[in-house]
Every structure is written in structure tokens, then in C-alpha cells.
Amino acid sequence: TLRFQEQLVRAHQEDPDRENELLLLEHAGVYTIGRTRNHASLHPGSVLPFPVHEINRGGQATYHGPGQLVGYPITDLNRCGRDLHRYVTTLENILIETCARFGVQARIREGLVGVWVENRKIASIGVGVKKWIAMHGFALNVSTDLEWFGLINPCGFVDRGVTSIERETGRTVPMDEVKKSIVTVLSEKLDVKIYNK
155, 173, 182, 190: which one is catalytic? Predict the structure, then answer.
């Protein structure tokens, strides 16, 4: 997925008129950590049950796995004022509105990136930018097995938990419904067309 994103970023750099693109998927179990020298969030020396990959996004360690919707919007930030902060805030608002559609009241927390339900993180955001083309994106816990977060300090936090739409609502939400909502809200908020192929 990382290699594919890098190919798309290069394609955008070569063709400024290329439409923004969105990859939506569920990963097999994996831990990732962003471009930071501090790897304390991975509990150095501990043995983790899934591979660990260092990638070129912002942020500390997190878990990706089945039941988590991962979105990689390949977005030309030249079209939205080269404002990375505004872009991240837009992603947060997309996730908040998506959660609301499934009965979960999520919000932004001052000074923290991501989307929260009280003191529990329901969605993470980590972005990488190359020549104003954004890659990476967000991870929304839909029906994720939250146990695997307990083996790390997710996003570097030791005093906050994680949650999912399923945990907050007490019911199973089909992943396809969440994907459709994300696509609808994202196309409105980022003012892009999403093509189904």
C-alpha cells in the first residue's frame, strides 16, 4: 500500500490536473510508527505479535488490522491553499460526521490530533506530504479488536484509551456502510469527485 501511494503521489506531481484519489482498505494486523526518533510508544524490547513498519507519516505508533477502516486520500494541497493544518482539521471533521451518522458523538480535543469519544480515541490521523501532495490519512476503528492496542502506547499516549463504533454503540456496523458514508462526506468536505471503478 505504501508503494502504491508513492506511485500515485509521483503521478500527481507529474500531472497537476489529476483528480484526487482515495484508497479505502482494511490491513492485516500490523503496527506502524511515523517519522520520529522516539520509539518509546512501541515498548522497545517487547515482542509484538505483528510486524512493525516505519513509515513517512507523522505520529507515534499505532495498530492497524481487520475491522478498522483505513483511508489514504491522495490529495493535492495546492488546491486547498497549501494549508496542512486545515487539511488535517478537515479529515477530523469528516470522521466526526461519519461517526455521527452511526450514533457516535465524537469530537476534536484541543492540542491533540485525531478524533475522540470522551477520553477514548476512535480515529487516528497521520499525514505525509511530498511537494504539497498529501498521502497516508486516517484509521477509523469500526469493529477493531482493541486488545492489540494494549501492547503499545497508541499515538504515544499512556493515559488515554481507544474505542470503536461497535464498542460505543453496542452493535455491529457493516464496513460497507461506513465506507459509503466516508466517501459521501469526504467528497463534500474536500470538494472532490469520487469515482467508483
Answer: 155
Q: How confident is the model at residue 192 (pLDDT cuts 50, 70, 90)?
A: low
What HEC string does the chain produce?
CHHHHHHHHHHHHHCCCCCCEEEEECCCCEEEECCCCCCHHHCCCCCCCCCEEECCCCCCCEEECCCEEEEEEEEEHHHHCCCHHHHHHHHHHHHHHHHHHCCCCCEEECCEEEEEECCEEEEEEEEEEECCEEEEEEEEECCCCHHHHHHCCHHHCCCCEECCHHHHHCCCCCHHHHHHHHHHHHHHHCCCCCCCC
pLDDT of residue 155: 62
Backbone angles phi, psi at 72, to 5 degrees: -120, 90
Whether 155 sits among the annotated catalytic residues: the reply is yes
Question: Tens digits of per-residue pLDDT, 147-191?
Answer: 998 887 776 666 678 999 999 999 999 999 999 999 999 988 876
**What's the full length of the chain, in residues?**
197
